[in-house]
Amino acid sequence: MASYSKQMQRIVADYRISGEPWPASTKTIAAWAIGNGKWELPQSAALTKCAEDISRAMREEYTTDAQGRRVRVKHPTTVRRGSEQLVLWDDLRTATREHMKLSFQQRRQQIVGDCRQLKIDVDSYNDRHANVEPIQMVFDFVRDLAEIEAAA
Fold this sequence. Notes:
By secondary structure, the protein is an alpha+beta fold.
């Protein structure tokens, strides 16, 4: 079986032989290839793209709770089922305590990971610029959260 790149090159050659206008943009060639049944999105790629779009949409779904707070509705947890790792989503309003506890713990670990990388980046910058005042980074967010809540 020819490599994917070779298949794409064959499509270009077929396009040129077809008598369509040349030179041509890649979008024009792609539209011709799809329209003539010479290329279609592999099912696995379509499934992955759709899953990514659904994930993004679930992350962007919010509601207002009884206290007037803007709350994210859908929450993921990463779990193992046998040898497979899955990301399972549930709704804040109906999820079990176990699902939400795990989801919140995993989100916290993501935040800690982001803070760790930020600290590494700041430390590296400060080391490279030892001749100027170092940039100070505070990783205690208690005051930040209190200010945000007070403003709301």
